[in-house]
Specification:
Blueprint lengths: L1 H24 L4 E6 L3 H11 L5 E4 L15 H6 L1 H20 L14 H25 L3 E3 L2 E6 L2 E5 L5 E11 L3 E3 L8 H4 E3 H4 L9 E4 L3 H12 L4 E4 L10 H14 L2 E3 L2 E8 L5 E7 L5 E6 L1 E4 L3 E3 L33 E3 L11 H16 L13 E3 L5 E5 L2 H8 L4 E7 L3 H5 L8 E7 L6 E7 L3 H13 L4 H6 L9 H4 L17
Helix pairs in contact: 2-10, 4-5, 4-8
Amino acid sequence: MAALCRWRHRFKRTLDLRNITRNLSTNYDYDLVVIGGGSGGLACSKEAAQFGKKVAVLDYVEPSPKGTRWGLGGTCVNVGCIPKKLMHQSALLGSAVKDAGKYGWKISSPVTHDWPTMARAVQDHVRSLNWGHRVQLQDKKVTYLNMKGSFVDEHTIRGVTKAGKETVFTAGNIVIATGGRPKYPTHIPGALEHGISSDDIFWLQESPGKTLVVGASYVALECAGFLTGIGLDTAVMVRSIPLRGFDQQMAHLVTDYMESYGTKFFWNSVPKKVEKLQTGGLQVTWAGQDSGHERQDTFDTILWAVGRAPETKALNLESIGVEINKESGKILVAANEATSIPHIYSIGDISEGRPELTPTAIKAGKLLARRLFDKTSELMNYDNVPTTVFTPLEYGCVGLSEEEALVRHGKDNIEVFHAFYKPLEFTVAERDASQCYIKVVCLREGDQRILGLHFTGPNAGEVTQGFALGLQCGATYSQLQETVSIHPTCAEEITKLHISKRSGLDPTVTGC
């Protein structure tokens, strides 16, 4: 024990001397080390390298509890935006095939979907992106280290390979961009043993079959949507509200459409246990929160989509003084992405109060690199960030929800213009458009500045992107009315909004 204490004392003294030496010489191994090879980390590292700086990226992803592995690129590339959108597209094509007969196409029945074919194509594309990121880092002269990183001290990182080999190196500046991973409800018997997460669904080689998705986040609803769309029996278990954090009127339009589309919903329900049957199925027992009455059903796959946890626990942050939110586990950051240690920064999903969105992480990473090495001062603007939920009926939004606008400005100071409309694409196909809806939330007085825009309908992301520029430039309702529309499009319906909620008039569009 005495020998161990002497070793610890010598080790601490060595680190103290090393820190004194560095403070005098600032002779670090790297100008910048980025821990995390996701979208934000890669963007930051490549931008920094353009200024002639010596940069390294550490990226190592622990396999999921089911053993799923993937390559460089982070959540978005491997288990998020990219495979999600491609599988969503597969589902949309299925709907298009159903519509095609109404437009004169003769398609033999039955039309079936083959999961392995889709999965191979999606996974091959993801692997090509993994390789592309490695090539880009090489071209930019960024050192890529397939290692798990943690802090030794404020300027020293320990990297550990899959084989357990350790390397220690130093950096003048360090950016943490490790993102998050799906949570498992480990308090539920059988949840971890018998369930999968979004880390796994995109890498399955065979169809998940009859699937229960537990959760009502955008991850949950998007997965349930494309599973239903490719013809699988799919149900969603919702504890409280859908799409928490989004406008709730729009959220319920999304779930209403999904129900009409074929997705089952178990509302106000919580799972109690998951048991594997001798027949191979998974029996789920759940209870209604109101009645407490228990129900059971059998599924082939249970997909947990109950939130995400930041990947901060293994970084050894507390020992070096980086402050985190004890409740969320996320890193506390200033407007310039700095942590409580001035030369250590945090970007992306692990930062407290930041949107968990790929484009914001990318832009924040680039701006941070410019501030560090190009003497600029521009900060990331997190206001009016647009996003889209890629459910069967897509939902795009930018700015404030109606609920947020009411809280910030008061009911008497808000005007909401809205309309139910029918996409031309839905007419010949005789598709139900009951949930195709638009609303623009504005200030009531003055020039009626637009505070938020919400749209459910085809290509919602493409529609919302353009209007996001308008909000960023301070667009007003009168300017929206002055905008000449492109006809016939769904987006034009936004420029024609003229009925307010306050008026009580029917907001259904009845003609051109």
